Amino acid sequence: MGIIQQYVRIDQDTLDRYVENSQLLQDDLFSTPHSEKNYLLDIGKSWDGLFYVITGEPLTNHKAVTPPLKWLIYGPNILDLEQDMGYGPATYLTPTQTQELFEAVKVIAEQSLSDRFDANKMNEEGVYPDFWEDPEALNYLIEEFKKLKAFLQVATQENQAVISFLC
């Protein structure tokens, strides 16, 4: 199966409820069929590759990346340190931080993703999931980037927070 990244768009009141009781996040996510969750974005296994082609750094070196792009995978706020969403706790962006991230992402051209894409280097750096030599790998990343950009745009337009987690 592998490790996948998911994002959830929510309003401030819902974020406040989740911060107060993080179990509500899991209850909400698992009580509705996946196909009915238009507020959820699943970027699959592209998360580490996207971080690399967007920032120029592997996620293992995320400390070298400045906010807001640093927040692509792990938001700056931890929802509940004790809650494990699969591969650690969920993190989140406030509505203001979501807008900051969107402003940084919206100016990134697909060509810059292509320019940073280097299958050999990504594999050497251990960028997950180690399939970057596949002829469709770059197209996969570009398509997932478009989905992420559109998701952040809607979240910004609706003044929403974004929760992210690996599972």
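That was protein one. Protein two is written in the same sequence-then-structure order:
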Amino acid sequence: MGLPDVYAAAAYADEVRAVLIAHKERGALGLARPLGAALAGAVRSAAVRQGGGEVLLVPVPSSRRAVAARGHDAARRIARAAARELRGGGRRVRVAAVVRQGRVVADQSGLSARERLANLGGALVVVPGAGRLLEAAPVVLVDDLMTTGASLVAAAAAVRAAGGMVAGAAVIAAPATALVSRAGQGETELGSQGHRCS
């Protein structure tokens, strides 16, 4: 029950990387809307099996220290932008930032996939009282970037432990090697559909 099905709007390369970094690390908050539109495409793909029912978008949390240093919560901001986009298309969706770090973790940059999994193992928890909300609708985990998938594995475990049903995960970008190719579609452009990750 580790990594849920993950859908990405684009490959993490060149322009996509620059836009994500500008939004997340440099405070280019005006990019939230186009990034949210891209994320909405990945959410549509992740939630396709849920029909037209309500979907709960749960952002994967950054550490409080990282959010404070950046001056904003990038994952929550783009989740809200994606929700607006989806609602505009008639989708019933809510954003619930109910997953938190329950203990201090090391900075993930520079860690291998195995080290990232160990670092995050049991570190993410659902805030008290959020179980009923998670039981009310299928959950799509959302984040800006999937590198190894360790954060998504940890977030999915926390949601499942609280009684939620994880329908999938949606990210703006993932490594090109993780994208399942679709004939005739450019994988480096922010698209209206998500690419399935392997």
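Helices lie at 14-26, 32-46, 64-70, 74-88, 113-120, 131-136, 150-161. Keep this in mind for the problem set.
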